[in-house]
Amino acid sequence: MVEMSTVLKAQTRTNEQHSQLNELRKQGNVPAIVYGYNVENTPISVESKSFLKVMREVGRNGVISLDLEGKKLNVILHEYQEDSLRREVTHADFLAVDMMVEIDANVLIELSNDAPGVKSGGVLQHILHELSITAKPDDIPEEIKVDISGLEIGDSITVGDIRGNYSVVINHEDEESIASVQPPREEEEATEEASESTEDQADEK
C-alpha cells in the first residue's frame, strides 16, 4: 500500500512551447508527462522541491501516489532529464502502473563487503552495474546487493550465482559476470612477456 507521505501533487499543462517550459522551471516546477495504466499521455508539471522530497522517500524505483488534480494514480519514475551543470531535473516521465501486474525495471547493483583477492593485490572489476528485472511494482527493490566477500584472485560472481537470492525475475543469462578479481597488473605483464618469449623461441627453432 502506498503511504500518504509519497503523494505528489501534479497539474495538467497544455502549452508545450519552449519558452513556457522554461518559465515553469523558473517558477520552481518540473515539466513532466504521465502515461500508462488507466491514463492517456498527459503533459503535467510537479513542484520541484516536492518531487525531490518524494524521490528521496521512495527511491528510484519506488511507487508514488500521483494526485493529478484529484485523480490518484500509482506511478513510478520511468525516465528523467537533468541539467548536469545546475544539477536540476528538467523533465520527468511517470509510468502509471497496475499494482497487480508485473513490469520490467532496471535496478542498480551494489557490491557489498570486501573481496579477499583485492587484499591480496588483485584488481576488482565491476562488470555489470545494473540488472533488468520483472516484478510487481511494490516488489521492485531499490538496489540489489551482491556479496563479494568470497572472491579470491581469479574468481568471479555471475548472475547465476545470485539468481536464487531474489524473488524477482532477473532478465539476464546465468553466465553474465557481475564482478571479478583479476591478478595484479604486474603478474599479467609477466605472463604476457613469458608467453611472447616462448613464442619467439619457437619461431627461432
UniProtKB/TrEMBL annotation:
Pfam families, per database record: Ribosomal_L25p, Ribosomal_TL5_C
Molecular function via GO: 5S rRNA binding; structural constituent of ribosome
An annotated GO BP: translation
Domain Large ribosomal subunit protein bL25 L25 residue range list: 8-94
Domain Large ribosomal subunit protein bL25 beta per the UniProt entry, residue ranges: 103-185
Gene Ontology terms: cellular component: cytosolic large ribosomal subunit
Domain of life: Bacteria
UniProt xrefs under SUPFAM superfamilies: Ribosomal protein L25-like
UniProt biased composition (Acidic residues): 186-205
Location of the region described as Disordered in the Swiss-Prot/TrEMBL record: 174-205
Oligomeric and partner information: Part of the 50S ribosomal subunit; part of the 5S rRNA/L5/L18/L25 subcomplex. Contacts the 5S rRNA. Binds to the 5S rRNA independently of L5 and L18.
Family: Belongs to the bacterial ribosomal protein bL25 family. CTC subfamily.
Function: This is one of the proteins that binds to the 5S RNA in the ribosome where it forms part of the central protuberance.
Full protein name: Large ribosomal subunit protein bL25
